[in-house]
Known about the structure:
By secondary structure, this protein is an alpha+beta fold. The chain has helices at residues 7-22, 31-37; strands spanning 51-53, 60-67, 70-77, 83-87. The protein has 2 helices and 4 strands, in the order H-H-E-E-E-E. A hairpin with a 6-residue loop joins strand 1 and strand 2 (60-67). The two termini are 14 Å apart.
Amino acid sequence: AGLWTTAGDLARFLIAIQQSASGATNAPFSRDLAWKMLTYDRNDVTGLGLFLRGNGARLEFRHDGRDEGFDALMLGTRSSEQGVVILM
Length: 88
């Protein structure tokens, strides 16, 4: 309930994760940090700050939230560089 953002900024964050994981030269995060975000933790549900589903080329990552009157969803894929951000 503490994050205020725009759909565009959240989409840029999603793209930054994808670019960093792929090792892009102008990526905003290190590849190592991106991989920590996209690697299952001990509970087989989350990475570093993200919820994960699938594995390998089919890995999806997401983060969602809800507060009174607000819903948010960020969903992306690791390998296909596709994603969606929904705020309502």
